[in-house]
Amino acid sequence: MERSAFSGQPSAEGDFRRVRVGGRALAYTEVSPARPRANVLFLAWLGGSRLGWQGVVEAIGDEYRALAPDHRDTGDSEAFADPYLLADLADDAADFLRAVDAAPAFVVGLSMGGMVAQHLALRHPDLVRGLVLVSTTPGGADSTPATERGRAALFLPADMEAQERARQALTLMTHEGFAAAHPEALDLAAANAARHPMSAESFKRQFRAIRAHDVTADLARITVPTLVLHGEGDDLIPLPNAERLAAGIPGAALRVYPSTGHMPHLERPAEFLHDLCGFLAAHRGEG
């Protein structure tokens, strides 16, 4: 758990696996010991791929079976041109867990990934052992919108090259000063974007799915252990959204990181891993 948050390298060709889900191929990374303590599924954010979770996957793969798939139409997964909802991505995740015999699993999702995790727990509760919801929201009319800085991260110029887009987006999504202090994080984000550039059309499909997300009225039906992790200075999904999420899920715990933006696994890597591993250790004997 002492390794750097940016020690992971962009995946080389052939170091991932594919599985058929709903008639399509989903790519995924798996790191696991011979006798894992539990299964842990990592779900990526808007515009991201499994590579964004690589450092965390490697860190917990010593004890747990850590799985990070690419959502449909992203990364090394098969292209998918039709519109979809986040509930569809949750069904993909459910089919994935069944296909690789990894259910039930703890589900860790950041931003859009956390929204998908909520749908997964609601639609397929038998597959979910616990939730770690990072920098995310239940959606709905009571949502607190992104700040001007957060909106800028979403709406960068359409003609911007993928690597520069990744650098600019990470700079705007993290707290002030993070990018200057951690140029290696920007380098890794750019390298991941070069490996997995996302088309404007794919980004729009994900963004429209997020805009339709609202599970506010259903949060009380989530009964698995839940940990909500959020940055105090998140400009993309401000903190009140996490507070609503934690208040709505019975028994959920909320951990707020000071001086932290939208990417706490990068901005607070040691604390994030401590909190994640503590949650897994506390609840892996359940279910």
Relevant terms:
single chain, 287 residues, alpha/beta, Rossmann fold, eight-stranded mixed sheet, 8 strands, 38% helix, globular
Give an account of the 3D structure.
With 287 residues, the chain is of the alpha/beta class. It has a single domain, classed as Rossmann fold. It contains eleven helices and eight strands. The chain has helices spanning 54-60, 86-99, 112-123, 148-154, 162-173, 178-181, 183-195, 200-211, 239-248, 264-267, 269-283, and strands at residues 17-21, 24-31, 39-43, 65-69, 105-110, 128-134, 226-231, 253-257. It has an eight-stranded mixed beta sheet, with helices on both faces. Helix 2 (86-99) packs across helix 3, helix 4 (148-154) packs antiparallel against helix 5 (162-173) and helix 5 crosses helix 7 (183-195). It is globular.
**Number of strand elements:** 8
Class by alpha and beta content: alpha/beta
**Major β-sheet strand ordering:** 1-2-4-3-5-6-7-8
- Write the CATH architecture name: 3-Layer(aba) Sandwich
Q: Which band does the percent of strand residues land in?
A: 15-25%
Quick check: average pLDDT?
Answer: 93
Question: Which stretches are low in confidence, meaning pLDDT under 50 for 5 or more residues running?
Answer: 6-14
Rounded to an integer, what's the Rg over CA atoms? Answer: 17 Å
Reading the helices and strands in chain order gives EEEHEHEHEHHHHHEHEHH
CATH level 3 topology: Rossmann fold
What layout of secondary structure does this protein have?
Blueprint: E1 17-21, E2 24-31, E3 39-43, H1 54-60, E4 65-69, H2 86-99, E5 105-110, H3 112-123, E6 128-134, H4 148-154, H5 162-173, H6 178-181, H7 183-195, H8 200-211, E7 226-231, H9 239-248, E8 253-257, H10 264-267, H11 269-283
Parallel strand pairs: 3-4, 3-5, 5-6, 6-7, 7-8
Antiparallel strand pairs: 1-2, 2-4
